[in-house]
């Protein structure tokens, strides 16, 4: 319990630090350009506590949805940000250059922090699934509706041993990029069926095959159903369920059911789905020794498939990579770009509910803190790249909105009417709050599935981020999106 509190505290401090760095960029730029900065807040709304120094009120505010530096000469949002009145009326105007420099410096500072964190990763390296060579191509998988369907990779003609080079003409450098490219794909044929163009190296020949990804997990994310080389490891055993009663233990490695090798997560789910009753001999490795446990799966209340009652993950065959900061940040930014494109495309299956808000971000940071400091540093770098890109989008309230309004004023030669700006800011704040409440509902659901075995059949299939959700880089402790739908069998 105390350890969980410790990890959550680390996550909250880490997220607050990212926000602080962003706002520090605005604050330093404003001071250097001679602007008035009357508030520096972590959070929005009424002031909870803080201190005043050199004319600036440094505060912690009620709503922990981000933060801001109050710069009335840039954008007067006095009452909206927690002030008592409009504040720019008696202040001298500032130039267009001042507005653009101050507005963009928050994102610049996030990129600088991401660069520094990436320098650390470059030095120590990080364990990921670097290969894009397919190890398993299941003939059948279980879709998000719980139905057994043909494996999309199998139907497309992909084979074990194929090395995936490109997804929809995007070059693939590791398994995480492969997952992201498939999940954020926007391909559909004339019948409206999702399509993915997969370029593989088979022997010495390059082939391009058309696959039709299937939606899996409660998140309805696209997958090809392929897996890299992995080992299935039991992470938790649910009390009063068949696996517990048979003596299965965390750390056991199931390798066969009634003598049939467990070749993939999909095999395990399909086998149970087709099970007609009776005991199943589960062969597993325990401390290097083979053990056979007769287990009769049961159907839990409100479910339609029998379960053993254990959760598992796939321990991926990883290697340590040392990517330089430019390469690492480019990969993160490209993933963010693909996710945003998918979010606004009617042809993709990425929805707003797949995004994560503060709850999901903190949960992701907490999980990374448990995995180790290297994974935490990587995730912090990812968050900072996402924050930088998200904040320069041309949306009122965000930095990009300030830049948009400043540019419109520059082009028209006169400032925008105060009422128009206030209406735009108010509308966007309402939308932001609505968005946070909406995605937090799904965040809480995902967190509940992660921390409570038997509460749900899937773990979170993607990491929380400030913007659209993205698949995690796979380290040996983590789940892949391909096996995520099979948790708690």
Q: Would you tell me the overall average pLDDT?
A: 85
Class of secondary structure makeup: alpha+beta
Low-confidence stretches: 453-489
Beta-strand content: 15-25%
Give the count of helical stretches.
11
Major sheet characteristics: 4 strands, antiparallel
Give the N-terminus to C-terminus distance in angstroms: 26 Å
Major β-sheet strand ordering: 7-6-8-9
Alpha carbon gyration radius: 25 Å
Number of domains: 2
| Count of DSSP strands | 20
Principal-axes shape call? elongated
Residue share in helix: 25-40%
Can you walk through the features of this model?
This protein is α+β, with helices and mostly antiparallel strands. The protein folds into 2 domains: 1-124 and 322-489, no CATH class; 140-320, Roll (Pdz3 Domain). It contains 11 helices and 20 strands. The strands form 8 sheets. A 4-stranded antiparallel beta sheet has the order 7-6-8-9. A 4-stranded antiparallel beta sheet has the order 14-13-15-16. A two-stranded antiparallel ribbon has the order 1-2. α1 runs antiparallel to α2 and α2 (96-124) runs antiparallel to α9 (373-391). The protein is elongated. The relative contact order is 0.14. Mean pLDDT is 85; it is low at 453-489.
Question: What is shown here, in short?
Answer:
With 489 residues, the protein is of the alpha+beta class. The chain has two domains: 1-124 and 322-489, no CATH class; 140-320, PDZ domain (Pdz3 Domain).
List the helices and strands and how they pair.
Blueprint: H1 2-32, E1 39-53, E2 56-70, H2 96-124, E3 126-128, E4 140-142, E5 148-150, H3 152-156, E6 163-167, E7 170-171, H4 175-183, E8 196-202, E9 205-211, E10 214-216, E11 221-223, E12 230-237, H5 242-246, E13 253-257, E14 260-261, H6 265-273, E15 280-286, E16 289-295, E17 298-299, E18 306-307, E19 310-316, E20 319-321, H7 325-344, H8 358-371, H9 373-391, H10 399-412, H11 418-451
Antiparallel strand pairs: 1-2, 3-20, 4-5, 6-7, 6-8, 8-9, 10-11, 12-19, 13-14, 13-15, 15-16, 17-18
